[in-house]
Amino acid sequence: MEPSVTAVFEPVTCTWQYIVSDPSTRSAAIIDSVLDYNSTTAAISTRSADALLSIIAEKNLNVTLILETHAHADHLTAASYLQNKLSDPQAVDGAGSVKPPICVGERIKQVQSTFAAKYGMSEQEYAGVFDKLWNDDEEFAIGGLSARAVHLPGHTPDHMGYHVGNNVFVGDSIFQPDVGSARADFPGGSAPAIYDSCRNKLLSLPGETKIWVGHDYPPSSNSPEDSGRAPRPWATVDEHRQHNIHLRDGVGREDFTQMRSTRDSKLSAPRLIDQALRVNICGGRLHGFEKDGDKVVKLPQGMVAETMASWRGL
Fold first, then answer.
1. pLDDT at residue number 105
2. What pLDDT score was predicted for residue 94?
3. Residues in Cβ contact with 62 at an 8 Å cutoff, skipping those fewer than 6 apart
């Protein structure tokens, strides 16, 4: 069976969020949700997450899983907020109300350790915040749909994709064919690993397989008559093999690695890197982020510059 997929684009961070459901049982999973962040006031809001909840209610879906592809460095996850909103206080077992588990790859521990040290966090703040840590190629179900967690290292060491039917939700492993590939300069990142993940795992799948991306950044048009294309959530394996500007057929591992490393050396830090990682290694939990009744993220001044400099060994 094939899933029903609802793709919701968040334009501030250019993030694709997904609701993947089993048409027969209405069981569903949420993939890579967004918590809104105002960089001017440092305030957090839930507009994007509430829009997902409205779709879920409208379609009468039962969310059984909240999936993260990795610890995002460019947006805050709404996983914890959604989990609390989707808990069922009537379905009580020995441990209390039933909540959809928040799931991520088991190598999240490596990322948590790296950034907890950077932000001066205690282990109590992040240990055990995720309900399920996937092993490589671990199988699971969304209602009656069979799914598999696929390790896709390169962008980050913890990165996972989710293979459901004829679809793979790949986070930041690969972008649309006219955009190319994700950066590989984060701690534990690797350009050769991105190449291997994309060419050997994703682009070796049947040509009609849909690859659903975590972001889309449509290239700007050079023509005033052409406004360019709209953000697009998926392209097929065949489209990538023929047209992906970084990973199409004929591009070798060495050439890709050189291109990716050169591009990454010129990129600035993601705008919300520290705010995002400070929250995301905690699964989206916001305990202690309070100021005048608002949820905020507070970080030491200059942290972004220090983080990127330390990553690149400057």
1. 98
2. 46
3. 25, 26, 27, 28
In the chain, which residues have pLDDT < 50? Answer: 92-95, 291-293, 300-302, 304-305, 307-314
Alpha-carbon distance of 61 to 69, in angstroms, equals 21
Token reading at 102: 């928040």
- Among candidate residues 34, 116, 83, 45, the one with its CA nearest the CA of residue 296: 45
As a three-state string, the secondary structure of the chain is CCCEEEEEEECCCCEEEEEEECCCCCEEEEECCCEEECCCCCEEECHHHHHHHHHHHHCCCEEEEEECCCCCCCCECCHHHHHHHCCEEEEEECCEEECCCEEEECCHHHHHHHHHHHHCCCHHHHCCCCCEEECCCEEEEECCEEEEEEECCCCCCCCEEEEECCEEECCCCECCCCCCECCCCCCCCCHHHHHHHHHHHHCCCCCCCEEECCECCCCCCCCCCCCCCCCCCEEEHHHHHHHCCCCCCCCCHHHHHHHHHHHHHCCCCCCCHHHHHHHHCCCCCCCCCEECCEEECCCCCCHHHHHHHHHCCC
pTM: 0.90
**Rounded to whole angstroms, how far apart are CA atoms 212 and 304?**
29
Residues 6+ apart with CB under 8 A from 190: 153, 154, 184
Domains of the chain: 4-311 (3.60.15.10)
pLDDT (0 to 100) of residue 223: 56
Question: What's the start-to-end Cα distance of the chain, in Å?
Answer: 51
Is 174:202 a contact under the CB 8 Å cutoff?
yes
How far is residue 48's CA from residue 84's CA, in Å, rounded to a whole number?
A: 15
| The pLDDT of residue 42 | 84
What is the rounded distance in angstroms from the CA atom of residue 58 to the CA atom of residue 55? 5
